[in-house]
Amino acid sequence: MNYFPVFLDAKHIRCLVVGAGEVGARKLELITKTPATITVVSPEVVPTVEALISEHTLTLYRRRFEVSDLDGINLVFVATDDELVNQEIHDLATERGILVNVVDNTPLCKFITPSIVDRSPVIIAMSSGGVAPVLLRYLRQKLESVIPQQVSKLGAFSERFRDQVKSALTSVTARRYFWEDVLDGDIGEAIVKGQEDKAEAKFEEALEAATHEAQTKGEVYLVGAGPGDPDLLTFRALRLMQKADVVIYDRLVSPAILEMVRRDAEKIYVGKAKSNHTLPQDQINDLMVQEALKGNRVVRLKGGDPFIFGRGGEEIQTLVKAGVGFQVVPGITAAAGAGSYAGIPLTHRDHAQSVVFATGHLRDNTINLNWEGLAQQNQTIVFYMGLTGLPIICEKLIEHGLAPSTPIALVESATLEQQNVVIGTLSDITTNPLTESVKPPTLIIVGGVVSLRDTLNWYR
To answer: Tetrapyrrole methylase domain: from which residue to which, for each copy (predicted)?
Structure first.
């Protein structure tokens, strides 16, 4: 980030606006919505500013800027059409350590004003750092259309009862859980509908119940993060990621997805790279239980789908044994993501009437699979974790009846910008020079459907 976003307490802002034309008026329209102390200096004043001065308590000096105007000021907007004056005020303010914004001149701005979605007391501020104003305007329009005006009622209600909840619930975690349930349930719905009496009655009941609960119960959410692209997360996965106290994740979870986790959540990396497990599986299981028993909401974040080569079944067996509550959120499995983004349909009426998912994981330099069952005509095979064992996979499939000319695809980093696809046949893929650069995570797709990539590829 080139700009650090902060919100200033406007009660302590002493703002100087130099220039009272239409440009200065836009800044004044914004800052007069706050309790800031505002001084305007300008020899000429447009009607818009005259109206703002009559409506608000502003100090106006109808003259040119003087150095003494900066005395006691901590925020400056410069909106004149004189470049020399703009530069002078910028330099003087900077020397005094005063934040200064020369409107429409980013190099002379020590701060910039964001694009704002106002649902006071809830304020959403966005910025592109001055490099993409049209994009920013587009995003603001999107947010304005999807965030209802009634959000302001939720904010006001929360502000009104904040101290009462803080007094009743001494635990920070308990308060957060309580407010999440209030705002996302019947009480929040009643507030939005303007049913204040109903909302208050239900609120008091909920707070009384929460006060007498013995201990906040922890829970584990086994969440499939999909193949990598954050856009492929389910809504439910995102909601639970935003509620988490602790997130336990492994190598297959992309950084972009981790960015969507609640900011204050503790993130614990447990590895799971080939032959390099930061934590063994039994310790991961124990870790989930330990964190849940502390009263935490734990997200076990897994690439793909938890129940497809994700050891999700083993993990929830441990939770059941320990008496820990859990939920399972399915994700788009890597095979589906890789096939779709590589332009390879896993089934097709003319090429494959069935698809089989198999693990190509090496154990003792061999892959223990039912090769005869896999090597069937008109069937697609998708191997997970099979890159190291690729020579064995090709050899065994040919040995058990598939033609050496059978198409095969290696899909590396499926659905991400760096996705890489290498196409070949069972007989030549291991000697293809492009194969040497392929790294995990890589899916292997075998079957006639691979030949469709030439016409169906749309992504990379």
So the answer is: 220-429
414 labelled ligand-binding = yes
pTM, 2 dp: 0.73
DSSP states of 30-59: HHTTS--EEEEEEEEE-HHHHHHHHHTT-E
User: Would you say 5 is a known binding-site residue?
Assistant: no
pLDDT in tens, 338-365: 999 999 999 999 999 999 999 998 888 8
Per-residue pLDDT of 400-442, as tens digits, reads 999 999 999 999 999 999 999 999 999 999 999 999 999 999 9
Q: Which residues of 38-76 are buried (b: 16+ CB within 10 A; e: fewer)?
A: bbbbbeebeebbeebbeeeebebeeeebeeebbeebbbb
User: What DSSP element (H or E) covers 359?
Assistant: strand 354-359
What whole-number distance in Å separates Cα of residue 250 and Cα of residue 270?
Answer: 5
| Active-site option among 153, 250, 302, 396 | 250
Closest CA to 272 of 302, 227, 237: 302
133 annotated among ligand-binding-site residues: no
- 282 in active site: no
Whole-number Å distance between alpha carbons of 277 and 274: 7
**Residue 305 known to bind ligand:** yes
The answer to whether 401 is a known ligand-binding residue is: no
Q: Is 272 a known active-site residue?
A: yes
Active-site residue, from 27, 153, 272, 302:
272
